[in-house]
């Protein structure tokens, strides 16, 4: 039975997305700008549409009429709007990013760093473990046949659901702070790296393997001179998937214990107190972090591949 | 990575030696480790032997199954031998018993989270993405603009929109479905747009020689040709849908649902129930993925990866 789950591109399917993204970067900036502007326009329309009800209710309670211009102005200046206007979020971002000391608890940079440090620690750990396991899988048939089906199947299950349990259990045995979140980030980045790295280490064709055999290369030589270099593009593709997953893991890891630091904590407290502007600014900060992380890996990838002579 | 029969025999012959050494080491550290190491080493030895056999349907199934079973047995042994408290790690037998005892609750949560939240959102989100992809396919300008933006958004931590959507759509499953729609939309869109571009000039020219217009070309050539990409998107989205539905419940839900149950039972430290929910979530996720993969085999039987 050729398991459909193991079909080419099935498990590490997200790497295609990354490839497309890279290709898309070369495209003209004009269309992208148009789409981004359209999104902002839609956002403003949505602001008016979603917040109008509250303004009308207030006006009805005060027993007065509101004109259209007043209505529009009011929908963009509410304290707890259903949907804050982009400029409200921008002001909040300015207040919490630029106007605060970055060590202050009110600084979003501080919260972002709390989340990022857990993300990076977990991501590093998960990546190293993933690469080691992949090397083992490629060189040991028993390991391949025992572990690989589970590693692939693990990509189809919502492992993020384990996050609250890890946090609480580690909390109950006295481990707090960065470690539980890092563990969640680690296991979320672990499986994509294993799957991507195994296909990368297996990517050399029969011709190349035969060539090394004619040189009577040892297993170690085949590994260092052929398999490892050939696996690097695959590794980077799965690293991008892994780091995005790590960030989500760290954010979700902050939810269950009612943590007071980190982007997840900002999301949660925002949702408790109806502070929508805070939620949106935390969300945008998370988006910026994700973009920076994926962008950084992309930069390293380009540099490494160029150095290896593998760039397109 | 081929081993001749001699290598396999050698390995089998050296196996017991290693097992003996490991057992002695275990006994020196802690006597309770001896049975644990014995089970591990024994199962590993069997697996090594099985893997060295000719690869058949039986061995490709038996090896991972034996590995999984061994892990479960080890888990049970470690918990019992070392007296790990149930609030840290319940044994698999307790989890199994809990699953058996709580079938109605688990089913209720499954219906709430999977059938109502995840599946509704999945169908709506993927359907909308498919239609959007077909719509923007006629405009190269929109494609060039939407693709980079879509790819960017697809890499963002979209689960973070959960608190906002819970605020908009209320605590019940509608908000979970909305989170799922947002999560699956962009991966699906990007995959479908890529798929619609996957025909080659020869095929399009052939359609032109038949004087086929836009719609016949779309229905008879481009959509079928896009199916491998579409199904790749659909498969990625199965996992995303479940994650979205479960995590959105952490931000508020009625008193049922997998995410709700996980977060409250974790708070009450009844971890066997949490593991039971996780088991259900894992089974649901795999079954969902499997169903989509099965449909893919039916639809894209012509594609090289399916042969």
From TrEMBL, chain A:
It is a multi-pass membrane protein. Its main location: membrane. GO terms for cellular component: plasma membrane. This is NitT/TauT family transport system permease protein. Belongs to the binding-protein-dependent transport system permease family. It holds the Pfam family BPD_transp_1. It comes from the Bacteria. The lineage of its organism: Bacteria, Pseudomonadati, Pseudomonadota, Alphaproteobacteria, Rhodobacterales. The keyword Protein biosynthesis does not apply. One of its GO terms (biological process) is transmembrane transport.
Automatic annotation (TrEMBL), chain B:
GO terms for cellular component: plasma membrane. Pfam families: BPD_transp_1. Residues 128-299 form the ABC transmembrane type-1 domain. InterPro entries: MetI-like (IPR000515), MetI-like_sf (IPR035906). It comes from the Bacteria. The chain crosses the membrane at residues 17-46, 58-75, 114-136, 148-171, 177-198, 229-253, 273-295. The keyword Transmembrane applies. It is found in: Cell membrane. Keywords: Cell membrane, Membrane, Transmembrane, Transmembrane helix, Transport. It is a multi-pass membrane protein. Its main location: membrane. The keyword Membrane applies. GO terms for biological process: transmembrane transport. PANTHER family: ABC TRANSPORTER PERMEASE PROTEIN HI_0355-RELATED (PTHR30151:SF20), ALKANE SULFONATE ABC TRANSPORTER-RELATED, MEMBRANE SUBUNIT (PTHR30151). This is NitT/TauT family transport system permease protein.
